[in-house]
TrEMBL record:
Subunit text: Homodimer.
GO molecular function: 2 iron, 2 sulfur cluster binding; 4 iron, 4 sulfur cluster binding; biotin synthase activity; iron ion binding
Enzyme kind, highest EC tier: transferase
Keywords attached to this entry: 2Fe-2S, 4Fe-4S, Biotin biosynthesis, Iron, Iron-sulfur, Metal-binding, S-adenosyl-L-methionine, Transferase
Source taxon at top rank: Bacteria
Protein name as catalogued: Biotin synthase
Reaction catalysis annotation: (4R,5S)-dethiobiotin + (sulfur carrier)-SH + 2 reduced [2Fe-2S]-[ferredoxin] + 2 S-adenosyl-L-methionine = (sulfur carrier)-H + biotin + 2 5'-deoxyadenosine + 2 L-methionine + 2 oxidized [2Fe-2S]-[ferredoxin]
Protein's GO biological process: biotin biosynthetic process
Family (UniProt): Belongs to the radical SAM superfamily. Biotin synthase family.
Keyword Transferase found: yes
Free-text function comment from the UniProt entry: Catalyzes the conversion of dethiobiotin (DTB) to biotin by the insertion of a sulfur atom into dethiobiotin via a radical-based mechanism.
Record-annotated Radical SAM core domain positions: 41-265
Length: 347
């Protein structure tokens, strides 16, 4: 499939047919598509700093940061700009080229914007690429962030439109699509994906990928998260998802969005090395690196380094044409251990 053939008209039947392929056929096809657009032995590496933690008014059932669930998470107010910049400096010294900042908000308030803008400008002045995830954005806010120098914005669709109401009631699917449209209109790169294993059915997984692939412009980055069941959230009791179904989801995402970085995101700690290797074979080519992923744990750096070595995988610097939000590339960090101070410790 060449770049000209990127499709935005996927139907549910077509997506379901991909999922229904024999496993080996599906992986072979995904690997073919992957090799047309990416080096199959390179994985991008992302880091993420929580700049405001917990006490979120939204009711996303999977999220320990929602104020509605008692998960024992320690709340943190918006970090001071200087502290954020200090972390960014450390990230740069450790080899990062991009710095992502996440805040547990429904949306940024007007009073927050000057601080946020200062953070973006400060991080930019350090010579780093910038990315943020702050909740819903108006067109005006998106323009302000773009003008401040924000390169990437993350906002996930989470699941299919049909299943969405089972997971979130405090904002609509259309709200999410509107934010993505505002980010695009402002000229920023889009990072958007979802979470599987939340009790959705197969059609919902197809529906999520259909929504993402059929956007007017496919996201530069597509994080596929496996639900991390945090005690105290309404989904903490759900049965584990069939691992091969997760690998299939990665493969189908790769086929439908051939030029996007497909990120193996939350849930990687529960995956053994073999499972992660299958995900890379299916076309995943980005991971989070570091021991904390906002508030849930992530494999430590050493185990990633070892796994990459075993698989002959190199980390990759961002590409001009298809980069992603949430990402600071740590190419050198495969050889050298990352500074602990870079990661927010929510434990
Ligand atoms: S996912 Fe984001 S919006 Fe939803 S509760 Fe968590 S922090 Fe809030």
């Amino acid at each position: 499939m060449s770049a000209e053939e990127i499709r935005h008209d996927w139907t549910l039947d077509e997506v379901n047919a991909l999922f229904a392929l024999p496993f080996n056929d599906l992986l072979f096809r995904a690997q073919q598509v992957h090799r047309e657009h990416f080096n199959p032995n390179e994985v991008q590496v992302s880091t993420l700093l929580s700049i405001k933690t917990g006490a979120c008014p939204e009711d996303c059932k999977y999220c320990p940061q929602s104020a509605r669930y008692d998960t024992g998470l320690e709340k943190e107010r918006l970090m001071e700009v200087e502290k954020v910049l200090q972390r960014a400096k450390e990230a740069k010294q450790a080899g990062s080229t991009r710095f992502c900042m996440g805040a547990a908000w429904r949306n940024p308030k007007d009073r927050d914007m000057p601080y946020i803008i200062e953070m973006v400008q400060g991080v930019k002045d350090l010579g780093l690429e910038t990315c943020m995830t702050l909740g819903m954005l108006t067109r005006e806010q998106a323009m302000m962030l773009k003008d401040a120098g924000l390169d990437y914005y993350n906002h996930n669709l989470d699941t299919s439109p049909e299943y969405y109401g089972e997971i979130i009631t405090t904002r609509t699917y259309q709200d999410r699509l509107d934010t993505l449209e505002n980010v695009r209109a402002a000229g920023m790169n889009v990072c958007s994906g979802g979470i599987v294993g939340m009790g959705e059915n197969a059609n919902d997984r197809s529906g999520l990928l259909m929504q993402l692939a059929n956007l007017p412009e496919q996201p530069e980055s597509v994080p596929i998260n496996m639900l991390v069941k945090v005690e105290g959230t309404p989904v903490d009791h759900l049965e584990d998802m069939e691992p091969f179904e997760f690998v299939r989801t990665i493969a189908v995402a790769r086929i439908m969005m051939p030029k996007s970085y497909v990120r193996l995101s939350a849930g990687r700690e529960e995956m053994n090395e073999q499972m992660q290797a299958l995900c890379f074979l299916a076309g995943a080519n980005s991971v989070f690196y570091g021991c904390k992923l906002l508030t849930t744990s992530n494999p430590d750096e050493d185990s990633d380094v070892q796994l990459f070595k075993k698989l002959g995988i190199n980390t990759e610097r961002g590409r001009d044409y298809s980069d992603e939000a949430h990402e600071s590339v740590l190419r050198d960090a495969v050889a050298e251990k990352e500074s602990e101070a870079l990661f927010y410790d929510a434990s």
